[in-house]
Amino acid sequence: MSTNPINVRLPQFDLTTEDGRQAAHRYVASGIVDLNQALAALNSKVNVIKPTNTTIIQSTAGAGGGGGGIAGLGGVNDQLGVTSYTTQQSDNGAKIIVGDSSPVTVNLSAAVTTPWFTIIDNDSSSVATLSGTIEGARSIYPGGFAVVFFDGATFWSGCTPIATDSSLGVVQPDNATIGAANGIIFTIGATGTIHIPSVDSGMAGSISVVKGLITAFTNPT
Fold first, then answer.
1. CB of 110 closer than 8 Å to CB of 91
2. Which of 13, 56, 127, 189 has minimal CB crowding within 10 Å?
3. pLDDT in tens for each of the 221 residues of the chain?
4. b or e along 115-127 (b: 16 or more beta carbons within 10 Å of the residue's beta carbon)?
5. In the chain, which residues fall in CATH 2.60.120?
6. d(Cα 57, Cα 139) in Å, to the nearest integer?
């Protein structure tokens, strides 16, 4: 179908007469037909790009509950009862739980792709030791954890320390001895005995504390 080009403008109609008003209506209707024909011809020349099929690739969880890359974030790899464990790619972003009645060794494998990091919890009464090319702490004490990052050549680790001096922000369990020449040890609900040096080579005194409350006091002499 050929289209009729719109090459004229609306002429002057005498709208005071019936013939003039009818001619004006016919002219407007004819213009609408021309417009529809023009739109139809234009639509046939426009190429519409339709989207092709899209495939979404989703990583699956690896062994131990983790997954490579972002998919591994929040995974948990339970290795309780295993005395020697070697980390793997699927531990990326995951939490590894270790612990046994015997000492545990965690071998940090360099055969992983970066970026790679993991968190290792020691849920036992024995020490867990990190093995590999490491910058930072290697020992994870009972109840502690380590955060380990890999840069492609070296593992960078940080482990919760165990207190040997009150200058550290943590203390050992109740009834354990902590050496401190000067300083204050802050803890909540402590239970134990505070020994007070004697005066003039007399008898030492003591303060007994149970769950943060003083239960007995002996003056030094």
1. no
2. 56
3. 455 555 555 566 677 788 777 777 777 777 787 777 877 777 766 665 655 665 544 444 444 444 444 556 788 999 999 999 999 999 999 999 999 999 999 999 999 999 999 999 999 888 999 999 999 999 998 888 999 999 999 999 998 876 655 555 555 555 555 555 555 555 556 677 887 877 777 788 888 878 677 888 888 87
4. ebbbebbbbbebb
5. 65-159
6. 39
